[in-house]
């Protein structure tokens, strides 16, 4: 998916700030990598456009992974990716001070009331999180706790779930004997999982490898039926016309 | 408004508020109020916890442990071992409790974030030094303090004339405003402030959207005081930019009963977050409570403040699976597909008790429900005591407008915020059970397809079944669990039929016993319960406490 997202002015300001911020030198590599991944997602595309660098290219590989991970975390929710970027920038001393605003001509004291209370866009230097300005007092907004990630990242099923096509290619190069129609312990083939989770590019790649579309899962569903139930129309279309 | 200006003003505003914060945190002593005669309410005996100073010296074990955790990413082995050991000591060898489960659970609870001070228990509530400073001045048990040997107040009550008479000062350009919720315009102002600025989840995907009807219901119980509905307005244009509220509640905590204020809906406009208004709002609502002769309060927060009396976890039952997956409220488990998840979460189309006397609660049921409820709540340690009027208000005043179809269990009326049902024994015509849930939607902040999450929350319930077999405790518990499964199971069916996407419940009351069977899944949100100016030892919530099973310490559902 290419990035159609246009980052805000605040983002560019923050990026400019960070590019020559002295505070950045004290920042951990993890944070730098996260910033890198977010920046790439916001300015290039939501996943790296090259294959994953070899294990000997430490830096390149770490950067690639950071980019890929940011893409997976935020997917098409790039607004959130930007908010996260701004949040890190703010923690490193950046302050959002739009250059577009002319210096005040008004009398002191009235300035504060010029805040546009009806402007619903959130303040950009603290874009995310937290509750109510009351230090989180009140009830809590909760959602289902996400499952632990990457438990079977090193199996073809785990890769199908992740949607990481480059990873699949690497895996198949290293394990050419792997049967792509194999069922996991729950009775799903990699194609079932990719279709169910909506990993379109993975579906295309699996089809290219010649996987069997007609395998049924434990509930008697084929891959196309799973895609249909899950509302992944693009995948349904691909499976109906595998040659296109 | 430019960032430059707010930054320039910031120092000034903080200075002003800091005066309230620091200066009269000892409001009492500086105003010479502390040494005045005590006027304890009969039930209020001072707690007999060891003195404050003593506790301070003792470096809390918790804070030491937390300190050791800082700088680590993984939950350390020692912590995992300790938890395992505790669980085993309490419950014996339990199936499914192994190292990995414990590690996962701790991970989920983001205990590392707590340790690093990034968050309270759950949620992204970075507490800065200022907040801790504020709470250190309040009559609340401080973190790490040992539990009291006896329950009671921390600060004695005082007569009205000794209560501070003037409102606390606000930063220049802001003014206090008592909100009249009977005025539809003012009600709408509160609704708008909250729906744009109130509590969000940790990654800003969902924000509570309390409806105006809901607020009207929640904030006007019998005997409410309009002085406890407190707003802050911009002086120049009267725009409402902050709010806090209290409503009266009679609480029983263990064996002591007292009048208290239920504090809720503290909200500061997003653009005022740096101004530290929250402490002033808390002080002002406290002052207003004092003026009415109320010196205790109950409140909840997602973040960790000094000091929770209990902590409960949210659980979620998916009703509209495809939508919940779309908006990333829930996830397809590794061993399922969406198709299977939909099938597994499908609920029956008719409540199981529909043929056995289940119907909507009516006016005539109020006395029986009040009695049933009062009796049932004796099971728990911290509960509201409700008069007949309060029962009417809580369960029937929010049922919306429009026709009630006799004998029907279905539906959703215009402006309905609460759903209340009873089971009437077909032979004796006695009310044997009742349950209720309320509607609290959330705005879905960034989603191309959906903008509102329709969530139902389990409210109060009571049943006579299970309490009947009092002679045989074990049999009673089994019957009770079965009956609650039927009742809350039927609540799910009714909620699904009424168009809710998800049904939420906390690990309080007897909920824990049915959550798993009814296919609730653990949430990422915790809710901490707090008492203001009252000491009692911890109550069973997400974990057991003393000989209480998980949940059974807490019997208060905060709206």
From TrEMBL, chain A:
Gene3D superfamilies, sorted: 1.20.80.10, Ankyrin repeat-containing domain
Q: Which SUPFAM superfamilies match?
A: Acyl-CoA binding protein, Ankyrin repeat
Tell me which stretches of the chain form a coiled coil: none
**Sequence segments annotated as region (Disordered):** 97-155
Q: Which InterPro entries match?
A: Acyl-CoA-binding_protein, Acyl-CoA-binding_sf, Ankyrin_rpt, Ankyrin_rpt-contain_sf, FERM/acyl-CoA-bd_prot_sf
Q: Which residues form the ACB domain?
A: 7-98
Question: Which spans does this entry mark as compositional bias, Acidic residues?
Answer: 111-121
Q: Where is the composition biased (Gly residues)?
A: 128-138
Q: Which UniProt keywords apply?
A: ANK repeat, Lipid-binding, Repeat
Extract one GO molecular function annotation from the record.
Answer: fatty-acyl-CoA binding
Name the PROSITE patterns for this protein.
ACB_2 (PS51228), ANK_REP_REGION (PS50297), ANK_REPEAT (PS50088)
From the UniProt record, list the ANK repeat ranges: 186-218
State the source organism's domain of life: Eukaryota
List the protein's name.
Answer: ACB domain-containing protein
Tell me what organism the protein belongs to: Jaapia argillacea MUCL 33604
Its taxonomic placement starts with: Eukaryota, Fungi, Dikarya, Basidiomycota, Agaricomycotina
UniProtKB/TrEMBL annotation, chain B:
Q: Where is the composition biased (Basic residues)?
A: 51-64
Quickly give the catalysed reaction: N-terminal glycyl-[protein] + tetradecanoyl-CoA = N-tetradecanoylglycyl-[protein] + CoA + H(+)
Read off the Gene3D superfamilies from this record: 3.40.630.30
Q: Respond yes or no to whether keyword Acyltransferase is given for this record.
A: yes
Q: Note the PROSITE patterns from the entry.
A: NMT_2
Keyword set, alphabetical order:
Acyltransferase, Transferase
Q: Which InterPro entries match?
A: Acyl_CoA_acyltransferase, NMT, NMT_C, NMT_CS, NMT_N
The residues covered by the Glycylpeptide N-tetradecanoyltransferase N-terminal domain are: 154-312
Q: Which GO terms describe its cellular component?
A: cytoplasm
For molecular function, the Gene Ontology terms on record are: glycylpeptide N-tetradecanoyltransferase activity
Tell whether Hydrolase is among the UniProt keywords: no
At the top level, the lineage of the source is Eukaryota
- Which EC numbers does the record give? 2.3.1.97
A Pfam family for this UniProt protein?
Answer: NMT
- State the residue spans of region: Disordered: 1-73
Positions the record marks as coiled coil are none
Instruction: Give the record's subunit note.
Output: Monomer.
Q: What does the similarity note say?
A: Belongs to the NMT family.
State its role.
Adds a myristoyl group to the N-terminal glycine residue of certain cellular proteins.
Protein's recorded name? Glycylpeptide N-tetradecanoyltransferase
């Amino acid at each position: 998916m290419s990035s159609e997202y246009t980052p805000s002015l605040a983002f560019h300001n923050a990026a400019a700030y960070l590019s020559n911020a002295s505070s950045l030198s004290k920042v951990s590599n993890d944070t730098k990598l996260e910033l890198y991944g977010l920046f790439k997602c916001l300015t290039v595309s939501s996943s790296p456009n090259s294959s994953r660098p070899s294990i000997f290219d430490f830096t390149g590989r770490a950067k690639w992974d950071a980019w890929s991970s940011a893409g997976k975390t935020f997917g098409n929710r790039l607004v959130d990716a930007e908010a996260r970027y701004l949040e890190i920038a703010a923690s490193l001393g950046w302050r959002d001070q739009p250059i577009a605003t002319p210096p005040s001509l008004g009398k002191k004291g009235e300035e504060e009331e010029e805040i546009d209370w009806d402007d619903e866009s959130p303040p950009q230097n603290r874009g995310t999180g937290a509750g109510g300005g009351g230090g989180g007092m009140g009830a809590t907004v909760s959602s289902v706790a996400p499952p632990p990630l990457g438990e079977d990242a090193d199996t073809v099923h785990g890769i199908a779930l992740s949607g990481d096509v480059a990873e699949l290619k690497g895996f198949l190069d290293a394990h050419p004997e792997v049967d792509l129609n194999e069922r996991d312990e729950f009775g799903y083939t990699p194609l079932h999982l990719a279709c169910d989770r909506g990993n379109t590019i993975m579906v295309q790649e699996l089809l290219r490898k010649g996987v069997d579309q007609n395998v049924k899962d434990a509930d008697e569903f084929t891959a196309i039926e799973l895609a249909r139930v899950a509302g992944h129309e693009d995948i349904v279309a691909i499976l109906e016309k595998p040659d296109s | 408004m430019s960032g430059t200006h707010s930054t320039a003003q910031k120092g000034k505003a903080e200075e002003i508020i800091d005066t309230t914060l620091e200066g009269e945190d000892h409001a009492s002593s500086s105003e010479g109020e502390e040494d005045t005669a005590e006027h304890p309410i009969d039930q209020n005996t001072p707690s007999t916890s060891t003195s404050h100073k003593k506790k301070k010296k003792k470096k809390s074990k918790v804070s030491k442990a937390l300190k050791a955790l800082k700088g680590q990413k993984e939950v350390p082995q020692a912590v995992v071992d300790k938890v395992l050991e505790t669980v085993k000591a309490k419950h014996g060898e339990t199936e499914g409790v192994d190292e990995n489960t414990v590690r996962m659970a701790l991970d989920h609870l983001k205990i590392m974030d707590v340790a690093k001070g990034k968050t309270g228990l759950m949620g992204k509530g970075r507490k800065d030094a200022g907040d801790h400073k504020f709470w250190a001045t309040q009559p609340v048990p401080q973190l790490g303090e040992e539990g009291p040997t006896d329950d009671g107040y921390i600060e004695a009550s005082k007569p009205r004339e000794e209560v501070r008479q003037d409102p606390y000062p606000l930063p220049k350009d802001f003014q206090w405003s008592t909100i009249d919720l009977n005025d539809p315009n003012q009600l709408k102002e509160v609704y708008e402030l909250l729906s744009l600025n109130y509590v969000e989840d940790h990654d800003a995907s969902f924000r509570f959207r309390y409806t105006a009807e809901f607020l009207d219901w929640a904030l006007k119980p019998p005997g409410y005081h309009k002085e406890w509905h407190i707003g802050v307005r911009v002086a120049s244009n009267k725009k409402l930019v902050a709010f806090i509220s209290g409503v009266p509640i009679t609480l029983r905590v263990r064996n002591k009963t007292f009048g208290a204020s239920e504090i809720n809906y503290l909200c500061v406009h997003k653009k005022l977050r740096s101004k530290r208004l929250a402490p002033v709002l808390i002080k002002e609502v406290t002052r207003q409570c004092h003026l009415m002769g109320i010196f205790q309060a109950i409140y909840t927060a997602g973040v960790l403040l000094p000091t929770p009396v209990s902590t409960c976890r949210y659980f979620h039952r998916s009703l509209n699976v495809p939508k919940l997956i779309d908006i990333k409220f829930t996830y397809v488990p590794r061993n399922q597909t969406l198709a299977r998840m939909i099938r597994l979460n499908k609920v029956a189309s008719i409540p199981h008790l529909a043929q056995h006397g289940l119907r909507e609660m009516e006016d005539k049921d109020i006395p029986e429900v009040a009695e049933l409820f009062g009796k049932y709540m004796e099971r728990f340690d911290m509960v509201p005591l409700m008069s007949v009027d309060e029962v009417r208000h809580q369960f029937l005043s929010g049922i919306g407008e429009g026709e009630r179809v006799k004998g029907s269990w279905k539906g959703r009326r215009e402006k309905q915020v609460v759903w209340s049902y009873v089971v009437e024994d077909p032979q004796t015509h006695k009310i044997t059970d009742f349950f209720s849930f309320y509607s609290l939607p959330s705005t879905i902040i960034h989603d191309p397809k959906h903008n509102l999450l329709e969530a139902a929350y389990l409210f109060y319930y009571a049943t006579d079944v299970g309490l009947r077999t009092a002679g045989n405790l074990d049999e009673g518990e089994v019957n009770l669990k079965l009956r609650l499964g039927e009742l809350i199971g039927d609540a799910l069916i009714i909620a699904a039929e009424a168009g809710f996407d998800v049904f939420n419940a906390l690990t309080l009351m007897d909920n824990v016993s049915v959550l798993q069977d009814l296919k609730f899944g653990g949430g990422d949100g915790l809710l901490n319960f707090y008492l203001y100016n009252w000491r009692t030892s911890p109550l069973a919530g997400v974990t057991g406490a003393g000989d209480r099973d998980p949940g059974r310490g807490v019997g208060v559902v905060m709206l």
